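Problem statement: downstream parser choked on a complex file, so we are re-checking the raw output for the thymidine-5'-diphosphate run. The parser issue turned out to be on our end (a line-ending mismatch), but while we're here, posting the original submission so the record is complete.
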Amino acid sequence: MVTKTKSAYVCNDCGADYRKWQGQCSECNAWNTLSEVRLGSATRGGKVLRSGFAGAVDSSVKTLAEIALDEIPRINTGTGELDLVLGGGLVPGSAILVGGEPGAGKSTLLLQTLCKLAENHTALYVTGEESPQQVAMRAHRLDLPTNKLEIMAETSVETVCAIAEQKRPKILVVDSIQVMHMEEVSSAPGSVSQVRESASMLVRFAKQTGTVLILVGHVTKDGSLAGPKVLEHMIDCSLMLEGSSDSHFRTLRSNKNRFGAVNELGVFAMTDKGLKEVANPSAIFLQRGEEVSSGSVVMVVWEGTRPLLVELQALVDDSHLGNPRRVTVGLDHNRLSMLLAVLHRHGGIAVGDQDVFVNVVGGVKVLETSADLALILSVVSSFRDSALPEDLVVFGEVGLAGEIRPVANGQERLREAAKHGFTRAIVPAANVPKLPIKGMTVIPVRRVTEALEAL
Ligand code: TYD
Ligand code: MG
């Protein structure tokens, strides 16, 4: 019998597969990312497994109207910020991916959550990276209830599924997906094909048994999840735990959520007693000293479904370099260059011979264009070395023609600012609320020049 070739070439970045090796992946255009994957008996074994679980899915054909619309009961995690990011709690039968850099606190967050959940629900924690002793020690140190949560150290997906099948936990955590492997797949744990096959078997198990599956995923050096595209379409909800190592704040953000709003932001603080949720994040990111210095401005950004007040700092200084520096922390670098050009052309302020540094305080990442106006004003404030009033908030998008464009949810942003004691706001003219907001003077601006005059 002639044996056919049983290998494929899979891109380590996006998971596209090819029959022949090539230098560049035609899907994601990355170079040198294809690696050989021996398929072996994977397809055969896979078929058997695919029909292996009890409680098969309902495959009858119906119209949408015939499908019962029972509100899916959500399981509250007991942590408000986590529930918020999830869109209101855990949905049975859903698969959630929690990603983050090593040391971000993924294991801590999940251990805390599971210990609390195990009080009322059956839960199984599969640890592939730490020993059960290590996990138990951490749970004791954090004073978590330890008598209910079941834990297992295992890296074989088949075994995990078999045991979960017997135990039927409501919630199953697998820490982490990168160390899991399937016997049928012959490549090393952590490779794209292992991650893909392992995750798809676990997700299938979750869907068919109504288990909440939480997978922990590591982030590669460039900040993406290992094999990201591979996992993205399989899971229902993708959360990222982020935070710089020098700050004890951690933000949990949802990048994809089939059951709630995306880009929802939950804020935690890492303490010696584990992760503590921060109920009023605006207050944290706003801790300013007695005196407001030049270059500092407070902006209102929109995170998922709520406003967040964050301080933005700029430092403009004489440059000794031919190519002055443009450094951003927590903001898009290209956006800064663009806004400095707008400031020059339409505001008449040239900082071409200056180094410009901007920083979002507290390690938050701002992805929104509503930070544009605040950025321009903070640069001007630092450049002129004149501090802005401490009770001023700013938001608005700046266009290339120097116009100030409205942003979504203007009224809610202003209300949040008023709640925190701000009394003046520079906002796009179209964002001025119809009814005045108590205690808030709104200064509408249409162009960059008007905003500079308003200072
Ligand atoms: P961990 O949950 O192990 O991170 P991950 O699973 O994402 O890799 O978190 C480890 C880090 O958190 C470690 O650097 C120590 C810190 N930490 C605390 O500061 N306080 C605590 O109570 C705990 C449990 C961890
Ligand atoms: Mg861990």
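For whoever reads this later: The chain has three domains: 3-43, 74-279, 284-454.
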